[in-house]
Specification:
Helix content is about 80%, strand content about 0%. With about 170 residues, it is mostly helical.
Length: about 170
């Protein structure tokens, strides 16, 4: 909280500056929450797509296995990389989805007692500082979430490539 001391040369911001700063910080935190929702949607898309790919392949393989017999090592060699890429996709999509420690605004319970005894400008400044802290925490969380979703998408692409290669290999047998 901004509390000027005797040696502090900073002046208390004027009302208009505080209002603009608070509005901007509030809007930026809301935008971050929207970005989090968008990343959740991407993680869900990746997870769903990976599951559809592996499910479709499993159905194909079930039909194909009845006409073609594979030994266990051949089966593992043929399907192991695909299953590992699916597992990696699921894990990273999940990790991206579970990053949830976002701050929306200052907790009113923490500020009620304090803010009842200070002037409006000090209240706005205190809330602005709390929003700035929330923004910094959210930026870190969004970065983690985006990294996990990016890795999951990369593994989805790897899964698709392995799936196509496996189907080509089976067709050539």
């Amino acid at each position: 909280m901004f509390e000027p001391t005797d040696g502090d040369t900073r002046a208390m911001p004027n009302d208009e500056s505080l209002r603009i700063g608070f509005d901007l910080a509030h809007d930026l935190v809301q935008i971050q929450l929207g970005q989090s929702d968008a990343l959740d949607s991407k993680a869900n898309f990746v997870l769903g797509s990976a599951t559809v790919l592996i499910g479709t392949y499993a159905a194909f393989l079930a039909a194909h296995v009845t006409t073609q017999k594979y030994s266990v090592p051949d089966y593992l060699l043929l399907n192991g990389p695909l299953l590992l890429s699916y597992l990696a996709t699921v894990v990273f999509a999940y990790l991206g989805y579970v990053v949830r420690k976002f701050k929306t605004a200052p907790n009113p319970n923490k500020f009620v007692e304090l803010l009842l005894h200070v002037e409006v400008r000090q209240t706005r400044l205190t809330l602005l500082e709390a929003l700035a802290t929330a923004y910094a925490i959210n930026a870190n969380q969004l970065s983690k979430k985006a990294n996990y979703v990016t890795v999951a998408l990369t593994f989805l692409c790897i899964e698709a490539i392995i799936l196509v290669a496996t189907l080509v290999f089976i067709a050539l047998l």
